[in-house]
Predict the structure.
Amino acid sequence: YFRKEVCGGTHGNCVCGKCVCEPEYTGTTCECPTSNLSCIYEETVCNNAGSCDCGECRCKKGYIGIHCENCFLCDNTVCDIPQYQACAECAMKNKKDECPESCPEIKLVNTLDNIDRSDICTITQADGCLMTFHIMTTDASIVMLVRKTSTCPESVNAMAITVGVFGAVVVVGILLILMWKICITIFDRIKYSRFQEDMKKLAQRDNSFYEGASAIYRDPIFDTD
């Protein structure tokens, strides 16, 4: 069976318990094409960085991709190659034997502090943790240094933040009320002081509309008028 089909379906026929493949296919289950058309990349077989085996590219060390089109150290974009994540993740899970064959030699390390930060690749995982690794060359080989543990952000205490924000709002509100009360008190005192000054000035000023009271006393005996 190949892909849940006897002899790959249209790739061949089962005769006496064995697959008899069509001319275009080979293998015990007719799983492999005899041509290398599926391995052609820009008119080259596996980008000249690997060999075509059973219709698939087997890349040399340092190259990854369906057609070995991505080189680990050919430019400064090594951190942008998606396959790096798979190589680093399988290494962190202690499953280096299950890593893709295109992965370089992988070494787990406790720290990458001795590596220049600009040469360290950082990938954000699904859980928000950061996975870091570095690609280096030793003689003619390529080695991938993967930090054993991920760096995870500290969990946020939502209750503490809520209480803190509420407390800050209350304190600010109280301060604003006190400031308003102080301003009103000062304003009232100024107005009252001006009122007292105006009353003093009014008391000292002559009022032309007001004439003081006068009294006339007459004696009926001596008054001859």
Q: What stands out?
A: Residues 73-169 form a domain with the Hormone receptor fold fold (CATH 4.10.1240).
